[in-house]
Amino acid sequence: MRDRNFDDIAEKFSRNIYGTTKGQLRQTILWQDLDKLLADFGDRKLRVLDAGGGEGQTAILMAQRGHHVTLCDLSAEMVARAQRAAEEKGVSDNMHFIHCAAQDIPQHLETQVDLILFHAVLEWVAEPQAVLKTLWSMLCPGGALSLMFYNANGLLMRNVLVGNFGYVQQGMYKKKRRTLSPDFPREPQQVYGWLEEIGWEITGKTGVRVFHDYLRDKQKQHDCLDALTEIETRYCRQEPYLSLGRYIHVTTRKPQSKDNL
Question: Rounded to whole angstroms, how far apart are CA atoms 33 and 252?
Fold first, then answer.
């Protein structure tokens, strides 16, 4: 199986994800975690890798905070969009752009990095454990991984609530690959196990959109976004809500004493 390349649907992806309350809420909750993670590093400027960074929304915000960010993506169109956005924001000097898959990034980086962002990518790759091991090799001891993945629990809950019983009973198998629905939704416990087997220490877990996508009245996603964001923030880091998020954000550390694989 081949990993998903977004060259053919980059505009649709941007419009349907980043241009909606889904994307706004995702970024808000994500940055609550990232700001805390950055504070743990102190004031020093970090070497950051945004692997599969897409249009660069998160990478650009990192660069605006003064960190040096390398963004790579399998999609040449996404990389071009990220470059244009960085130029418009005036942070191009703090960024480096590479057109390659996350698995191939060791061929392009000469040194390890302090922080790796790997957001909404794991659910699109055919060999997730291999990718995670590659990222481990590129992270310096004491460094951190910010991993956000599409949650199979959330997919099941959403489909049951809208009455797609046959689809759920058949295992939620995806028939069409050329869509925005991820190819490989991930089971949270399996992902946590992969991380710990490799050697990462999990430091935090957050559900992303633990209520938003389940609202019966979709208009409230727009009209009540501030109130919804406050409620999401209150509950998204506690069970059972955490494990029902449409995405789960995991923060991890690579121990100082661990050797690279």
Answer: 11
Question: Is residue 73 annotated as involved in ligand binding?
Answer: yes
- The response to whether 52 counts as a known ligand-binding position is yes
pLDDT tens for 82-125 read 999 999 999 999 999 999 999 999 999 999 999 999 999 999 99
pLDDT grade, residue 10 (50/70/90)?
very low
Instruction: Find, among 164, 176, 179, 182, the residue nearest to 248 by Cα.
Output: 182
Which amino acid belongs to residue 119? H
Annotated binding-site residue? 142: no
Is 246 within 8 Å of 143 (Cβ atoms)?
A: no
Q: Say if residue 245 carries a ligand binding annotation.
A: no
Q: How many CB atoms lie within 10 A of CB 155?
A: 20
Cβ 237 vs Cβ 260: under 8 Å: no
Q: Does 171 count as an annotated binding residue?
A: no
CA angle at residue 59 from 130 to 19, to 5 degrees? 100
65 neighbors 38 (Cβ within 8 angstroms): yes
